[in-house]
Write a structure and sequence with these properties.
mainly alpha
């Protein structure tokens, strides 16, 4: 198992290198200068030249590429151009935990609600129950996250006054309700649909009929036999949406005014803050790689066939 994880991590190195190369050249190909974007008034050419020299921006592009790459390998991305009093490492330590907690809470909510609702839709003998759950699933998948965020802010914040319309008062405050629900709605719908479909496919297989013939209790059959097999494709859905939420939360963070890593990325792109843009891209790429490895490990725990093939 450990060897497998190490191999997967090493296989992710080319992905990180390609991501670094693409974002480096795309960022530097953007017209303009970081000093123009970060100032409200024009900067004198002499001042701009001194800033370029201080931050090595007057060097040839390949020299800058090697310099950035060597620093990234050591985990040192240098100072931020937008906020030159802070290093990129300090920015990551300050803003990334907010995005991770926000995305983790949204995925946890989606899984804890999606699995029971998917099971209810698949096992219920009342068509109205199945239909209602399917409507929830369809609405969650079809509505973009930024639209859901805007609707919740207008309805809950402006209309009812239950939540703040903008700003952040902490993870355990009412200001976290709108962003968590907004991010959780799409994966909730996907988990419901995937788990419902998987249960419907599993419930008529031969090993389920055998378990019923042995006289096992219905709840035991559902939990220990049906759900475990139905979870395998659902894990894929959860992994895909977990990557999407962690990488794409900047929409919600920008609209709701959350001081997360995604919102800071939007500000960094507008300011042409190359070190922050490069660091953010690499961190998000690493998160996607780690999530994919975790999904494979969960396959190993859930599916005996995977364990036999591994052995």
């Amino acid at each position: 198992m450990l060897i497998y994880v190490i191999k997967r991590l090493l296989a992710g190195v080319p992905t990180l290198l390609i991501s670094f190369t693409l974002v480096f050249f795309i960022a530097h190909a953007t017209p303009g200068s970081p000093w123009d974007a970060s100032s409200n008034r024009p900067i004198e050419p002499a001042v701009k030249a001194r800033l370029d020299e201080k931050y090595n921006l007057n060097a040839p592009l390949y020299v800058q590429y090697v310099s950035y790459l060597s620093g990234a390998v050591r985990g040192d991305f240098g100072p931020s151009f937008r906020d030159r009093t802070m290093n990129v490492s300090d920015i990551v330590a300050q803003f990334l935990p907010v995005s991770l907690k926000l995305g983790g809470a949204a995925m946890l909510l989606a899984v804890l609600l999606g699995l029971p609702l998917g099971a209810l839709a698949a096992l219920s003998r009342k068509p109205i129950v199945d239909g209602a759950v399917r409507v929830i699933s369809t609405v969650g998948i079809s509505m973009p996250t930024y639209v859901v965020t805007s609707i919740l802010i207008v309805s809950l914040g402006v209309g009812l006054g239950w939540v703040p319309t903008f700003g952040w008062e902490g993870f355990f405050s009412i200001s976290s309700i709108v962003p968590i629900v907004s991010l959780a709605l799409a994966p909730l719908g996907a988990v419901i649909r995937s788990f419902r479909t998987s249960l419907l496919e599993v419930m008529n297989l031969d090993f389920i009929k055998t378990a019923r013939a042995k006289g096992l209790k219905p709840m035991s059959i559902i939990i220990h036999h049906m759900s475990r097999n139905a979870l395998v494709p659902t894990v894929t859905v959860v992994g895909a949406y977990a990557s999407s939420i962690l990488v794409g939360s900047f929409f919600v963070e920008s609209i709701a005014g959350i001081p997360g890593f995604g919102r800071y990325l939007v500000l960094a792109v507008a300011a042409r803050d190359y070190p922050v843009i490069i660091a953010t891209t690499l961190i998000y790429a690493m998160l996607v790689i780690v999530i994919n490895i975790l999904v494979d490990l969960i396959y190993f725990l859930l599916d005996p066939q995977v364990r036999l093939e591994s052995a």
